[in-house]
Amino acid sequence: MNRPPGPPGTRLAGNGPAYDKDRLGFMTEMSQRYGGIWSFDRHIVVIADPALAGEVLLRTNKDFGGEVDFLHQKQKEDDATMQQWASSRAARMRGMRPSAMQDRIPLIAAEMGREIPKWMTAGNVDVVDRMRALTSWLGSLICFGPDASLAHGLEQDLFDALLPVIRSTIVWPSWMPLPRHRRVVRANRALENGISQVITARRSQDRTDAADLLGVLMKPTGRHGELSDRILRETLAATLLAAQSAPSSGFGWTIHELVNHPHIQQRVAAEAAAVLPSTGPITSDHYTRLEYTARVVKEAMRLWPPNWVYARHALHDTALGGYTLPRDTKVMVPSYVIQRDAQWFPDPLVFDPDRWLPEGSGTKAVPHAYLPFGAGPLVCMGLSWSLIEMTLGVALLMRDFTVERAPGTNVVPDPARELTPAGLMVRLSERQRPTHSSPDEPLRRIPAPNSGCPMAAGVPV
Ligand code: HEM
């Protein structure tokens, strides 16, 4: 079978060392050299073209399998697992869809409004770390409402235990009794036990109809019936894990750009001061008027997508981009490269939130050129959730504080797992509140948080 062209690499180690030395740079340079589909080696193909990226993501579960999950490696792609996955995904969607998340805006804003002012210290502030703690707590609250403290923090232990496993260049099977694997198993057991306690308490006290995510998941549906306790535990554990890491990285990247662009920071602060009430609850109505801030977050997710590369594998011999990929070929889709390509985004390295205005170049980009939340059957379920957290977090921080880079610090993109702004440290000082937004920028109402959801076609959000 013919293969797409690609860099030959060294005779013994192929392209692995060059990739490990500079993952983002290697992917970018080779995509420029070899085009939208190229071979990393005999078993891995890289897709850097929006149309082909869309195909891979939309054909997931049919022709391409998703990333193998370390914790559930044994289950993989059998029919029963797919059926359970579909049931738990459908149930979760009911609890995380835009309308459900809009109802939670006052809760999220109140927690953020209480917590963010505490970040003000005389020294350096690690905003990613602070946000991670906050999003972790919000995850527990959204999942378990009044029982949040019973399982809180355990998913952070699991995340920390998983990091060395995921970052390792050698992938050992999960059944191997390595110390790092045992740590993951222990942390996962602790998290699932914590979740079980909440489920048991709900059942014994006849409180199975709560408005939180667990309450939604416990309601049987005509189509899927009742979820088993195992699926409940695994679904909630996965939700808590997803809820605490990516939004804090996305928030960190947005702050990084605002630190580098004080005039944009000023505009965000002016909008926040004009839109957010200084007393009383912040509602979905206020949120939808944070129009400029939403564009700033969206642009930060273009330049710095936390999920910067998608991993798939061919489930059988399958055609893609004029080639036939043999079964088990790995397919990597670096959204980071596509989203920085001048073919789809003019002046791609310029941080320009206004490219997302209705007539802007970003809004008119070809389908699947903007993919920070994925597309197709595995598209991110936390899209509204994370946009609300990132937008409100940025607005509340900027309303009250001027943010500057801490002296002597430097940000280095770390792509080892999620793309994170390693080394990001800032100094906060109280902001003189402007009384109105910039006169040349009238406030516009933005659509509901998820109205551009890529669920259907992977179109820009
Ligand atoms: C900036 C924040 C976030 C980003 C950039 C992000 C991105 C993504 C992406 C790209 C995927 C698809 C992965 C693939 O196709 O292989 C995904 C899946 C997922 N995300 Fe997010 N996510 C974010 C926040 C959240 C939050 C707050 C939640 C809430 C729990 C969440 C829940 C999920 C879930 C459950 C899936 C798996 C869907 C499935 O396998 O069926 N995400 N996310």
Description of the structure:
The chain is an alpha+beta fold and 461 residues long. It has a domain at 78-307 and 339-430: Cytochrome p450 (Orthogonal Bundle), CATH 1.10.630. 47% of the residues lie in helices and 9% in strands. It has 17 helices and eleven strands. It has helices at 16-21, 23-34, 50-58, 79-96, 98-103, 105-115, 127-144, 148-151, 154-167, 179-204, 213-218, 229-260, 262-275, 284-288, 291-303, 335-338, 383-400; strands at residues 37-39, 44-47, 64-65, 310-314, 318-320, 323-325, 330-333, 401-405, 412-414, 420-422, 426-430. The strands form four sheets. A five-stranded mixed sheet has the order 1-2-7-4-3. The chain is globular. 42% of the residues are buried. Bound molecules: protoporphyrin IX containing FE (HEM). Protoporphyrin IX containing FE (HEM) binds next to helix 12 and helix 17. Protoporphyrin IX containing FE (HEM) binds at residues 66-67, 89, 238-239, 242-243, 246-247, 250, 306-307, 310, 372-374, 378, 380-382, 385-386.
Compact description:
This protein is α+β, with helices and mostly antiparallel strands. It contains 17 helices and eleven strands.
